[in-house]
Amino acid sequence: MDCERLAAALDPLLQRARQGYPVTRLHRFDVRRSADGYRIEEDGLAESLEPTLESACYALTSRIHAMALAALPEFTKVHAGCATWRGRRLIAVGPPEAGKTTLMTRLVYEGFAVHGDEMVLLKDGLALPYPRRFGVRTPTLALVPQLAAVPRGANPRVTDPAALGFDWVIEPAPVAAVFYLVPNHGGRTSLDPCPKHLMAHRVMSQSTGPETGRRAWIRDVCVMLDLASSYTLTLGDLDEAVNVVKATLEGAPSAEF
Predict the structure, then answer these.
(1) Per-domain residue ranges for the chain?
(2) Which pLDDT score is estimated for 152?
(3) What H or E segment, with its residue span, contains residue 182?
(4) Which residue among 56, 116, 119, 207 has its CA within the 20 to 30 Å range from the CA of 78?
(5) pTM here?
């Protein structure tokens, strides 16, 4: 890369999690600035010409994301946040704007090891968080006041545990509890047991299956749920949510492989 401006613009967009999962592929990108924009080569082959700094950053990060997921075809991919409390892992499943990022960002400041807010990969009963930086919406900034302490010059709307001063580790582990989030913005938080057959339907509605087919998709979800407790978390007051999640995980059995 021969453009310091592009390197500086990319720096806050790239994740820096410590990953306990083996590298399976290596790729090389070359970016050169020219009179008509930014020429991007992938593994020695010309791929695109981007007219602006912003579009070059978007093209690179989007391509890296797509390639990373393409390298994991055997996993079921669930739209979920993921965190660990005292050795017990949780995933929080829900549609967009259900509160996954808000909850995960708050848990960062509550002693949880938070692994991600967006995607979890399932296989053989283990959940592997996908390391992607958090996209924080404006309402979350008001609900998690600790974000006001983010250093000047940083962008709290794009963040991650490492950027907030915490350890960020990505590694596979069994799931102790699955929470399906139902938003109740401005209201009370409540927790109700969820039958596993209903949770299986909910998880599959927020996931995509592996390339090996639907049978493997169902197996991945069911094996994960067989080891976990299942709940509907109506997400309102965040203080209540933190207390409920902690109490639930403290009472959940530890699953070991």
Answers:
(1) 4-70, 76-250
(2) 55
(3) strand 177-183
(4) 56
(5) 0.88
